[in-house]
Amino acid sequence: MKKEAQKKPIGYKKLSLGLKNDMPILIMMLPGAVLILLFSYLPMFGIIIPFKDINMRDGILGSPWCGLQNFEFLFRTEDAWLITRNTIGYNVIFIIIGTFLNVSIAIMMSLFSSKRASKIYQTIIIMPYFLSYVIVSYLVFAFLSMDNGFLNKTILPMLGIEPINWYTVPEQWPWILCVVNFWKWTGYSSVVYLAAIAGIDVQLYEAAEIDGANKWKQIIHITLPSLKLLIVIQTILSIGKILNSDFGLFYQVPMNSGALYSTTSTINTYVYNKMISGGAKTLGMSSAAAFYQSVVGFVLVLLANMIVNKVDPDSALF
Amino acid sequence: MKRVLALFLAIAFAVIAGGCGNSGEQGAMLTEDPNEVPSDTYEINWYLMGTPQEDISSVEMAINDYLKDKINATVKIHAMDAAQYEQKMNTMIQAGEYFDIAFAARWMLDYFGNSEAGAYFPMGDYFDKYMPESSKQMDPDQLESIRVSDGKVYGLPVHKEYAGQIGWIYRKDIADKYGINMADYKTVESLKPVLETIKANEPDMQYPIDWDNDSAPRILVEQESNIFRNGMYSNLEVVNYMDTPEFKKACEVARDFYESGLVKKDVLTTHDTIQRMKEGKCFCMLSPLKPGKVEELFKNTNYEFAQQEITAARVDYMPGAASMQVISATSKNPARCMRFLELLNTDPVLMNLVIYGIEGKHYNKIDENTVQIKQGTTYDFSANAWAVGNNFIVYLTDKDDPQKHEKLKELNDNAERLVSNLFMFDDKGDNEMIQIQTELDVINSRYMAQATTGALDPGPILEQWKEEWKAAGGEKYIEEMSKQYEEFLKKYPEKVQETIEREKELYNIESKDDSLTE
Amino acid sequence: MHKNIKLETFLHAFFLVLCACSIIPLLLVISVSLTSESGIVSKGYTLLPSELSTNAYEYIFKNGNSVARAYGVTIINTITGAGISTLLTALFAYGLSKKDFRWRKIFTFYVFFTMLFNGGTVAWYIVCTKWLNLSNTIWAMILPYLMNAWNIIILRTFFSTTIPDGIIESAKLDGAGEFRIFFQLVLPISLPGIATIALFQTLAYWNDWWLPLLFITEPKLYNLQFILQNMMNNIQKMSENSNYALSTGAMDVPSESARMALCIIATGPILFVYPFFQKYFIQGLTVGAIKG
């Protein structure tokens, strides 16, 4: 990125010339740019909603400002802490275990001498990635249903354990959600890493082999260092999104069951549940939660990037 | 630096662009003369709660033809099932999205809260001008009960019965087979042996009774004892309903049935009670009843259903707030909407078009007031007529009791009226109180199904519920409400005396607070 | 390269287990969809049908008028959505990848910022419904997903690393315009990258239930996933005219297996898509997902 900095930025005088040269490209980009403006930038006016005492008569702009009242109300509830804890907790587990799983599976897959075997396995383990969360919630239901579920009717009786009414026991859900998450994403994410491994220069391995390095040493000294960049980027991005959650996972899979909220509700599902059940009066609180999520997430990603910049400038995002 | 600048510009732009609030055109439209056919056509976007019907477009066309010479309006009906309706409409209201007319109630789309927040149009101010007949056919108590704290009325109650009873809906053939007389079973727990017999002998009925949140055993408590539905009052004293022994008992009964395998295991997460009844998988369910309820719910089924009331009839708490039509504050022409509602509630032709569809196509007329719905019809909204408009001008079907309307009126006239029916808590615009109330609603709705359906052990749930309820300021709320209720009761000394007398007689309980009666 | 037998055996064993874990849930649902209602009542959901029956599928074909329509909606959304989206993303990413494009940095930031910050669902909903009037239109299920920052960045990286500058320069010297260069030169050599984005978007549109949940109330516009979601609580939703179609008899309605059968019907096509894309997918990700 640094090289093209030599090119002069658009100056006042050069503007017309620049426009003429760049016109075809600008035209190409126009539809996309407009769509991004409409669907990503216009909604940013939403950041003012939590600071307003919304009443529908005057609309959003016309309603009086109310300072931080909505935030006060939000953080006074136990929900605020609960959803923050859940969101961050799940994400930390997902990032740590997820990265480990993805990288190790990708490396193992790269070890196959037969490309066909690796391709077939790949095709199968990536399958869950293609299912929507609605379908996933049915699959999970097929296992967990109280009346007919595979666990309650087949597995647990074999082990001599009493049936469990899964959808009512919040303690069970942290691991259920983790399993579902890894089941759905590991195949895909490991393919991303596999792709990165495939991009490593084969000559490096050949040279190592001649030097007598075994597979394990090759992994430690060639594969992992080559993946470092990707791992760091993925982790920064994940930390930036640490207050976001996979809405489908937390909304569809537990079937939005109120009994499970203590371990399944995240900021995203909280905001959505307020939106669909509260009417005009909950808008302040739900938008306060959304604002909190967006701003803190923004700060987090800047921070993460700054730290990376200090430690290893080449790996930084910007 | 440039990036930061660009960022601020982008946000500023978004804020400015986003800021276009509501326009104040409504005032101008309210000059429309109610007796003239306007020259401009207006499309009314009407949101209804009920199962969407396949042939809605031809019915809309028929309605539009009919309205042309009357109020020159067209309608676009958006019908949705309850769960979807609630989600969608709440989202629309929060976003200030445009719509014209919608169904609302005390329990749906937070009529009071949203009215205060200005989401609805204060149609009460224009009753005399645009809706003279439809507003006058109401019981005055009904309109009084939906007056919001700012003194205005924002909705038109659906003209129908406003009293109710609780009772059983059950399979008559099965009851006959086993010689069961449902009138003998006044409590849920007393039915247990019967259900056990059925479970043992009817292989199709693995779970002979079924309920979900709205039909769990607790609804009987709400009707039978002196505790009211929104969970906060007793008749003369404000208590936390969820903390009463009666409520606890109902939860325990539900749990007992659940553990005995009399109700389906997925009771907390699935809501298909009526469907299971229709499919013949259950013997009975508990339900709020009115004359003709069974015929409304179970049309064209293979089985014979019947209903049996087991409680006395009572006028609903807030008798007008159970089912209403409201006009949105975002409506571009509230006058036309009001004229439409007036027509809907007074003109049988229009009302029955909405309910039964087109004569000859969706139903046949047997006599002046009776219809026969065609087999396999593609339009029949009658199961949700109670959420649309004047029920007394809806035709009866050949399966209905010919006296249904008279019976409904009788029910209204004879049901007992409780003094607390008209009491409404006033948050007085205090933001903290509003917040507490909102939080309590959230907490209550979160725990209600968990505690009352039996899927979970109610003991710990009730504990947890109470704890959260307290943390959210429940006690403060009850305290404030007690104060207001006391004030309220002072306005009706005779009624209070009456209530005390009746309670002594009915429930053999000591009158709780004589000082109130002076 | 010599084969390491021990290692290979371990790897095969490991991946066989992994594959089993991946597909067992789906097998379970397939099995349930092929089990008779009475089989389910007595044995529950089992990995092999306890009583084989195709009742559920027959039932869907007979009564699923809305299922057929939803299929149509899903297909239309997927084809137009993924098609337009891939084209616009490619056009946009191409601009970002051109080193001599002066607005490049500004536009890169313009895209990147949307990944970091958003205005919340409510505001987004207001934009879609109040200003763009998308409610109850097919566009509500297409437009919002068209441009995705992540896809743009992947494709930009792909372009800037795979397209040799020389080709474009020489084409320019031959007098070719930007559009011709893009469509005749860039697109053909970027097939893996394009295919990757196309696959992402096909999935996004095929699997979407979120947009109809927010914007669609017209049953004619429901898509497959949305119908499935509604059916989770109630099989009734399958047929619009529920009052009549379903009340036929106790065990005649395979409500348990029919839901699962519909899952299979809704999932089938998308599972067959992947092998076609696989050839390009790895290659596309190889170049695209790594930062440029």
TrEMBL record, chain B:
<dbReference type="InterPro" id="IPR050490">
    <property type="entry name" value="Bact_solute-bd_prot1"/>
</dbReference>
<keyword id="KW-0732">Signal</keyword>
<feature type="signal peptide">
    <location>
        <begin position="1"/>
        <end position="17"/>
    </location>
</feature>
<dbReference type="Pfam" id="PF13416">
    <property type="entry name" value="SBP_bac_8"/>
</dbReference>
<dbReference type="InterPro" id="IPR022627">
    <property type="entry name" value="DUF3502"/>
</dbReference>
<dbReference type="InterPro" id="IPR006059">
    <property type="entry name" value="SBP"/>
</dbReference>
<feature type="domain" description="DUF3502">
    <location>
        <begin position="438"/>
        <end position="490"/>
    </location>
</feature>
<protein>
    <submittedName>
        <fullName>Extracellular solute-binding protein</fullName>
    </submittedName>
</protein>
<dbReference type="Pfam" id="PF12010">
    <property type="entry name" value="DUF3502"/>
</dbReference>
Automatic annotation (TrEMBL), chain C:
<protein>
    <submittedName>
        <fullName>Carbohydrate ABC transporter permease</fullName>
    </submittedName>
</protein>
<dbReference type="Pfam" id="PF00528">
    <property type="entry name" value="BPD_transp_1"/>
</dbReference>
<feature type="transmembrane region" description="Helical">
    <location>
        <begin position="138"/>
        <end position="159"/>
    </location>
</feature>
<keyword id="KW-1003">Cell membrane</keyword>
<keyword id="KW-1133">Transmembrane helix</keyword>
<dbReference type="InterPro" id="IPR000515">
    <property type="entry name" value="MetI-like"/>
</dbReference>
<feature type="transmembrane region" description="Helical">
    <location>
        <begin position="12"/>
        <end position="34"/>
    </location>
</feature>
<feature type="domain" description="ABC transmembrane type-1">
    <location>
        <begin position="71"/>
        <end position="277"/>
    </location>
</feature>
<feature type="transmembrane region" description="Helical">
    <location>
        <begin position="258"/>
        <end position="277"/>
    </location>
</feature>
<feature type="transmembrane region" description="Helical">
    <location>
        <begin position="179"/>
        <end position="206"/>
    </location>
</feature>
<keyword id="KW-0472">Membrane</keyword>
<keyword id="KW-0812">Transmembrane</keyword>
<keyword id="KW-0813">Transport</keyword>
<feature type="transmembrane region" description="Helical">
    <location>
        <begin position="106"/>
        <end position="126"/>
    </location>
</feature>
<feature type="transmembrane region" description="Helical">
    <location>
        <begin position="70"/>
        <end position="94"/>
    </location>
</feature>
<comment type="similarity">
    <text>Belongs to the binding-protein-dependent transport system permease family.</text>
</comment>
<dbReference type="InterPro" id="IPR035906">
    <property type="entry name" value="MetI-like_sf"/>
</dbReference>
<dbReference type="GO" id="GO:0055085">
    <property type="term" value="P:transmembrane transport"/>
</dbReference>
<dbReference type="GO" id="GO:0005886">
    <property type="term" value="C:plasma membrane"/>
</dbReference>
